[in-house]
Amino acid sequence: MPNQKPIFQNLFFLLLSLSIFTNVAHVSSKSTIEPCSNSDSCNAVLGYTLYTDLKVSEVASLFQVDPIAILTSNAIDISYPDVENHILPSQLFLKIPITCSCVDGIRKSVSTKYKTRPSDTLSTIADSIYSGLVSADQIREANSISDPSVLDVGQSLVVPLPCTCFNGTDNSLPATYLSYVVKPVDTLAGIAARYLTTITDLMDVNAMGSTAIKDGDILAVPLPACASNFPRYASDFGLIVPNGSYAITASHCVQCSCGPGNLNLYCMPASLAVSCSSMQCRNSNLMLGNVTFQQSSAGCNVTACHYGGYVNGTIVTSLSTSLQPRCPGAQQFPPLIAPPNSVTRDSMFAPSPSPQSNGAGTPTPKSSGVPTTTTGSLPGLGLPPANSPIASASSDASSLVNSLATFPSAFVLFIFVKLMMSMSL
Ligand SMILES: *[C@@H]1O[C@H](CO)[C@@H](O)[C@H](O)[C@H]1NC(C)=O
Ligand SMILES: *[C@@H]1O[C@H](CO)[C@@H](O)[C@H](O)[C@H]1NC(C)=O
Ligand SMILES: *[C@@H]1O[C@H](CO)[C@@H](O)[C@H](O)[C@H]1NC(C)=O
Ligand SMILES: *[C@@H]1O[C@H](CO)[C@@H](O)[C@H](O)[C@H]1NC(C)=O
Ligand SMILES: *[C@@H]1O[C@H](CO)[C@@H](O)[C@H](O)[C@H]1NC(C)=O
């Protein structure tokens, strides 16, 4: 089916804003633009590369996003003590979940504000601190800055960030879109392979005429996802969780996961749940996420307690029964990783969890008159033991990684040198 996404591509952001005040020679980066007409916002993801070592909470405040949401989006285990103060390594690639609005007819995120610090320039804020997700000119325009050479320390700047939603679908399947800043080493084929999509799909989505991509371009990369169907009045309406990751919702009371086996959103009480409203399905003894079934000659009678959204501070639950040809196996969960300490090749370019299964514990039969019960025996959000193989693998790999990590540093240096040169013009 031909792609019907109405996109204007090849919009040269930097050319749009004819730079009157500076003589800086810009790279002309392309960015995929999605026109929009209503005021609905939607969920999207930013691909962010850390410019320096940062605490989880510092990354969160750069984007004004819940730190727990950043961790769960990257399948990082939040059960580690003091995980919000964990220091993430420079050059780590993270997916940042954001709300994508419709502003002046195009999709963008405008909820991020940055408080300037001494020695910040618009270029360092754009290229380094926000890792190329925004340009200096876009920040200048968004804040009507007439003289970019004078930035007051402590000034609060709106940082417009690129995002797309395309109705939460890609080729009619649920998807959420990652705004990906092309690095010098990238090829379209490489990006397609890394995100389990195809070159054709990337070209369609981004309305590209050729496979050529350039350092600094921003691509919309579709990530297969699990969609919710909460009512419009739910505060988490439109929740969509990319395959291989988690989301936390309902005031940290509910965690939802997607994959790896199927793309059905699965929600259950979160480990962080402190004071939460009831998560029991009405007229049953089932809690959110519980699934029971009974094999009969007609098939498998499956009863499940589902999450239906967060409404007025209440966790909506619904009980469903269905007759299925086969009884479902234990719920599977995307593998969690330990909070990263070093940049591995994977985490640098894209944190894709290794296809290792865990968390899908053994069924826990309960003597409660419920016939057969399976639950993912998750200790909270929790999942794999603290010293999961992934954690040790990343430290073992650090020597290998050092050589790989030089490329991005060289890139940062390159930006820096360029900046210096442009300032001396
Ligand atoms: C958006 O997706 C919904 C279903 O999720 C569909 O009903 C609607 O027609 C789609 N809209 C567009 C413009 O594709
Ligand atoms: C979801 O992720 C798992 C593990 O990463 C992968 O095996 C599976 O193919 C993915 N599903 C889709 C629809 O992309
Ligand atoms: C139901 O889910 C809760 C919370 O996840 C879990 O603690 C409990 O063991 C489950 N009970 C049954 C009967 O499956
Ligand atoms: C399936 O189970 C539910 C509850 O256990 C029961 O009310 C319902 O009648 C059953 N349906 C069938 C088709 O067996
Ligand atoms: C939420 O609460 C307000 C008042 O507290 C009420 O007017 C509104 O109808 C409620 N919404 C829903 C969906 O229950």
UniProtKB/TrEMBL annotation:
Species this protein is from: Quercus lobata
PROSITE patterns: LYSM (PS51782)
Region of interest (Disordered), ranges: 344-384
Entry protein name: LysM domain-containing protein
Domain of life of the organism encoding this protein: Eukaryota
Biased composition (Low complexity): 361-384
Name of a matching Pfam family: LysM
InterPro entries membership: LysM, LysM_dom_sf
Keywords: Signal
Gene: LOC115960842
